[in-house]
Design brief:
The complex is a heterodimer of chains A (about 110) and B (about 120). Chain A is about 0% helix and about 50% strand. By secondary structure, chain A is mainly β. Chain A starts with a strand and ends with a strand. Chain B has no helices and 11 strands. The chains are: A mainly beta (about 110), B mainly beta (about 120). At the A-B interface, strand 4, strand 5, strand 9 and strand 10 of A face strand 5, strand 9 and strand 10 of B.
């Protein structure tokens, strides 16, 4: 199974400042079709998860451009350029390259 | 509007069974892989099971293999999860989620609100 490791566990951020979350996979996420199926999800308190980013760096419909994804192979990063109050929640990376599908442990973004 | 609505959760004793349902609307249900994802209280997300659009192919996490069965009824736009031999560690919110492969996303773009399963005596 592919293990997804996120750091940090928690990220206290001042409003308007940037935040960065790292995700590392135990093996390459490059699929046989050449794509890398790494996505990022946001879970606000009391809400179901919401897709933010797919295939490393593609913003899903309606996602603000302050969210960006990057990386390749086994190392990936989610960045929030300027954190807003509505960004509070837990962020998960997820791989859909191979079964079983796996999530990172989550990173809590909170306002300092 | 694209929507997923789970039902069937509740309180069940260890060793018991429960059947979850997920009613889909607003998209061509049979065209998409569907999955169940769960979240234990205060914990992270765990993928549980997935099924192809036709229902011919199913996939399971090791933690539920042999105890849970995923299925779908495309004529009724409904996804199911039959859970048998339930354990305390199966206590969680269970979400159904749609995986968009058609547009090349291969990511879970739509999630339901979840249904709560509690396994306790």
């Amino acid at each position: 199974d592919i293990v997804m490791t996120q750091t940090p566990l928690s990220s206290p951020v001042t409003l308007g400042q940037p935040a960065s979350i790292s995700c590392r996979s135990s093996q390459s996420l490059v699929h046989s079709d050449g794509n890398t199926y790494l996505s990022w999800l946001q879970q606000r308190p009391g809400q179901p998860p919401r897709l933010l980013i797919y295939k490393i760096s593609n913003r899903f419909s309606g996602v603000p451009d302050r969210f960006s994804g990057s990386g390749s192979g086994t190392d990936f990063t989610l960045k929030i350029s300027r954190v807003e109050a509505e960004d509070v929640g837990v962020y998960y990376c997820m791989q859909t390259t191979q079964f079983p599908l796996t999530f990172g442990g989550g990173t809590r973004v909170e306002i300092k | 509007e694209v929507q997923l609505l789970e039902s069937g959760g509740g309180l069940v004793q260890p060793g018991g069974s429960l059947r979850l349902s997920c009613a889909a609307s607003g998209f061509t249900f049979s065209s998409y892989v569907m999955s169940w994802v769960r979240q234990a209280p205060g914990k992270g997300l765990e993928w549980v099971s997935g099924i192809s659009g036709s229902g011919d192919n199913t996939y399971y996490a090791d933690s539920v293999k042999g105890r849970f069965t995923i299925s779908r009824d495309n004529s009724k736009n409904t996804l199911f999860l039959q859970m048998n031999s339930l354990r305390a560690e199966d206590t969680a919110v269970y979400y159904c989620a749609k995986k968009d492969g058609i547009r090349g996303l291969n990511a879970f773009d739509i999630w339901g609100q979840g249904t709560v399963v509690t396994v306790s005596s």
